Amino acid sequence: FTNWKTLRGSGLISLLNVGLRSTPLRNKQPIDFKVNEGSIVVSPFQLVGSDAEINGYVNIAADKLVDARLAATLDLQYAQPFIPSVEYGAGKTTATLQVSGKPSDFRVLGNVVLENGVLRFNGLNDEFKNTSLQMSVSQDLLNITRLETSVNGGKLRVSGGVAIDRFSKFAPNLKLNADRVEMKFAKVLTTKLSGEMSLKGEKAPFHLS
């Protein structure tokens, strides 16, 4: 087919096994879905694993309305493959996300909490351990209320926001407070940072000062 908006159909998913990492998630009850010329309806669903749970629903009326909700409690390792620049991630994560409004002018409301997390980023040789994060999400801004982490025995605290403009850009305006944070760059350069800094920019490379 050449245009998915011409599709029509409905069905019932009696068994859904999402094999993310080593711990699968399975639906707790059958999931109804309908597709009708660009409209998509997915009945309320619940996916459950040994240490994770995801629930939500989807209601999209073609070119008129989007109403969708997702709530999850899971280890960050489930979401890590979908997070840009994160090479490795682990830690208990609780997140909710609500999308509503017209598709051309949708609104987003959500929040993310990470407890005792471990992160490793592409291009960096250091692990960020004992990471705690509280962040709210809107269609325009990722607002970091609190981000605290340990790096090679030092402490790093981050606050501020990242403008995303309906997920079309990534422009940070962050304040960083470092206390004896040792960082390794390119495996040949090591530096120890202390003090207050800012990270800003409309696009990479961003400006650290």
Task: Give a quick precis of the structure.
Helix content is 2%, strand content 67%. It is mainly β. The model has no long low-confidence stretch (mean pLDDT 88).
Notes on the structure:
This protein is mostly beta strands and 209 residues long. Helices cover 2% and strands 67% of the residues. The chain has a 15-stranded antiparallel sheet that branches. It is globular.
Shape: globular
Q: Number of DSSP strands?
A: 15
Please give the share of residues in helix: under 10%
Structural class: mainly beta
Head-to-tail CA distance between termini = 52 Å
* Helix count, DSSP H or I runs of 4 or more residues: 1
Largest sheet: 15 strands, antiparallel
User: Radius of gyration, rounded?
Assistant: 20 Å
Q: Which series of helices and strands comes N to C?
A: EEEEEEEHEEEEEEEE
Question: What are the low-pLDDT stretches, counting only 5+ consecutive residues below 50?
Answer: none
Q: What does the average pLDDT come to?
A: 88
* Percentage of residues in strands: over 45%
